[in-house]
Design a protein that fits this description.
About 45% of the residues lie in helices and about 10% in strands. It is α+β, with helices and mostly antiparallel strands and about 170 residues long. The protein has two domains: about 60 residues; about 55 residues, no CATH class. A four-stranded antiparallel β-sheet has the order 1-2-3-4. Helix 1 runs antiparallel to helix 3 and helix 2 runs parallel beside helix 3. The radius of gyration is 30 Å and the shape is elongated. It starts with a helix and ends with a helix.
């Protein structure tokens, strides 16, 4: 009894990833760790076709070996296990003083931006930023307050290294 590859592939495409993994194990005789649906579909369909029509010929296999001679074959080495260490003994704690960011204007400067028709003014402080009567640690926090979603504060206020250098 021969399988119709097109019908089988159509059935495979309707399967879930879990079902495809089971089918892969049936077809190949070994389990797989992948959850990539397209890869599983292609591998199962190829194996079914190879079982029906036969694998590549011995001539093609020898030609491939001849072409591969003298080239490096890519392999993935097994992941080495790391020795267990005492994480508390290896941890160093302390305060790191951040360097001055050249994108920021000096303290007591005002950053302006028009957003959705409103003029936004942010005062640069020694230890943060003041906007609408509240103090924020980062420009990203200010931008999030304004937009309602996380975004990079430097990008939101259009502060870049190039604009500071000019």
């Amino acid at each position: 009894m021969q399988l119709d590859i097109d019908k089988e592939v159509a059935l495979l495409q309707r399967m879930t990833v879990g079902q495809l993994r089971e089918r892969f194990e049936e077809t190949w005789g070994e389990p797989t760790n992948t959850r990539n649906k397209q890869w599983l579909l292609k591998r199962i369909a190829w194996k079914m076709q190879a079982n029906i029509e036969g694998d590549i010929s011995e001539r093609a296999r020898s030609r491939a070996a001849e072409l591969a001679r003298g080239t490096d074959i890519r392999t993935t080495a097994p992941k080495a296990t790391k020795p267990v260490t005492n994480p508390v003994a290896d941890t160093v704690t302390g305060f790191v003083e951040p360097g001055e960011d050249i994108r920021l204007p000096p303290p007591r400067s005002v950053i302006e931006r028009v957003y959705k028709g409103q003029k936004i003014l942010v005062l640069v402080l020694e230890t943060g930023f003041e906007y609408d009567g509240a103090i924020y640690k980062t420009l990203s926090a200010v931008a999030k307050k304004i937009t309602g979603q996380h975004c990079n504060g430097y990008h939101f206020f259009k502060l870049s290294k190039k604009s500071r250098e000019q």
